[in-house]
Design goal:
10-stranded mixed β-sheet; 517 residues; alpha/beta; 4-stranded antiparallel β-sheet; globular; 14% strand
């Protein structure tokens, strides 16, 4: 009898284990894989899916055609590292502790979507640009990341175990190949979450050799506010990020003086002889064109704008081709049906608007970011989403997709119900806080955006308020804060701003707000 009970218990235990294995397999098969592609400084206005008719971005546009385009995706802090920290943690900069690219190192001991997904049984990886300082990443089964900003050509990667490896080739191609290689060798029994972090289109806008000159035949339209005088906007007038004065001929536009090695970008220095030959053959022709035309004043500024656009958009073409390559891999390997793919930039960028390049300001071109998504069987092809979404919403959305509990610390809102056409309460106000005080002379500031208005408080470098009526002034050229007829609007918006400051527990902003009253 004892032997029978022992045999029965053993069989029961084996059956339970088998059932658990089957149930785990069923659960893993149902939970979607996740691919998040983050580019750097890629402006929504340079993507054909967002209406640009002078260029084509077929790789990115595929996501809009096969899924959804987000018209109102925004960031909490328009600067590279802090934006990634907010995406990873679902929190504002003052909560995750990574406020700028200069003073902080990311604390990986805090909660992140990578950690939660890993605990929930996902296999996790981050490949490419992370830009969160020197700390060793946590929550990842595998990482292969660029040190700091990384290099466009023949870049180094820091890999799992904190080892460094140098690759030969173009960084966007290498990141894509590394990502697909990881997908090849992952554990197929587990769902996966893969973050692909591209360096492109970060300054100094270096295309793949095959894409040099892609847009040389096009004369790009000048933004209507290219020669903005910044009247009524003190912080805008104080910045140092203009194409006219800040953009450097050698460093940014590759117009090198002979043998001036100090001006040559690091990525060029590490090129092979063959790479350098192709590179200098192209840019020496551009230099010859400049020396022939000899433009001065506004004509020179416009010449710089055209060169900036051509290099930036050629770099974007290299990026776009690789996004298409990633989608092709998922399609060809039967992964698309159960994989959600999101493409986004870490923030927007200025393409000559206000005469600028770079980001940082709460003005629309840098506050707003491109975001597109494909989720077969859930999101209908060709969907356009006009609800406000913020980068802090990515983490809770991924966690809800995985069926795991969302940490209470996270401040973002899952938009999975929106994708599933379920009950969803959209935002009606966006809160923003930028901290870095020095780079490009952009003053720290915080503020809110509603459907109609934007109220901004600048502090430290410039002490001022700005108010824009976005219906009448969508390009934010006319600060109406001091207009007497707007006093009631100002009072109402300040109440809303304080409400958001308290909601997100931004004590620094609260103290500044109090002093500014």
């Amino acid at each position: 009898m004892k032997q029978f009970k022992k045999w029965f218990c053993t069989k029961q235990a084996l059956l339970l284990a088998l059932l658990m294995t089957i149930l785990t397999g069923i659960l893993n098969a149902q939970r979607p894989n996740i691919v998040l592609i983050i580019s750097d400084d890629h402006a929504f206005q340079t993507i054909s899916a967002y209406g640009n008719r002078q260029i084509q971005t077929p790789g990115i546009d595929r996501l809009a055609k096969e899924g959804a385009l987000f018209n109102k995706a925004y960031v909490t802090n328009s600067i590279c590292g802090p934006s990634r920290a907010s995406i990873l943690t679902g929190t504002y900069s003052h909560v995750n502790g990574f406020k700028d690219n200069v003073s902080f190192n990311f604390n990986f001991n805090q909660e992140s979507f990578a950690k939660v997904l890993q605990t929930a049984g996902y296999q996790t990886a981050w490949i490419g640009k992370m830009h969160l300082g020197d700390s060793i990443p946590q929550g990842l089964d595998y990482y292969s990341i660029l040190p700091g900003q990384g290099q466009y050509y023949n870049p180094d990667f820091i890999q799992t175990g904190n080892t460094t490896r140098r690759y030969q080739g173009y960084v966007t191609d290498i990141i894509t190949d590394e990502a697909t290689n990881w997908l090849e060798r992952r554990d197929p029994a587990k769902p996966f979450c893969l973050v692909i972090g591209h360096k492109a289109t970060h300054r100094t806008w270096m295309p793949a050799l095959e894409d040099l000159g892609t847009y040389d035949s096009i004369s790009f339209d000048l933004p209507h506010d290219f020669f903005d005088d910044y009247k009524t906007r003190k912080a805008a007038a104080a910045q140092d990020m203009t194409i006219a004065k800040t953009m450097r001929m050698a460093h940014d536009l590759k117009i090198y003086e002979q043998n001036d090695s100090t001006a040559i970008e690091n990525s060029v220095r590490r090129m092979t002889d063959e790479q350098k030959k192709r590179w200098f053959t192209y840019y020496n022709k551009i230099k010859g064109d400049l020396e022939t035309k000899m433009p001065k004043g506004n004509a020179l500024t416009e010449w710089k704008f055209q060169r900036y656009m051509k290099d930036y958009l050629s770099t974007a073409a290299s990026l776009d081709r690789n996004i298409g390559k990633t989608l092709d891999y998922l399609d060809k390997n039967g992964l698309s049906k159960n994989t959600i793919v999101i493409y986004m930039s870490d923030q927007g960028f200025y393409m000559g608007e206000h005469g600028w390049f770079d980001k940082r300001f709460m003005y629309e071109e840098s506050f707003r970011t491109p975001m597109l998504l494909r989720y077969p069987g859930v999101v209908r092809p060709g969907t356009v989403i006009n609800d406000y979404i913020m980068n802090i919403d990515i983490a809770p959305t991924f966690i809800e997709l995985a069926g795991a509990p969302i940490p209470r610390r996270m401040q973002g809102q899952s938009f999975l119900p929106l994708l599933q056409s379920k009950k969803y309460t959209p935002r009606n106000t966006l809160y923003y806080h930028y901290y870095e005080n020095g780079e490009h002379a952009v003053s720290p500031h915080f503020g809110i955006r509603t459907q109609r208005y934007k109220l901004i408080r600048f502090y430290n470098k410039v002490e001022s308020w700005e108010l824009f009526d976005l219906r009448k002034d969508p390009h934010e050229l006319h600060n109406i804060y001091d207009h007497a007829k707007e006093s009631a609007t100002v009072a109402s918006l300040k109440k809303q701003l304080l409400k958001e400051i308290k909601r997100y527990k931004d004590d620094e902003a609260a103290a500044i707000f109090k002093r500014a009253l």
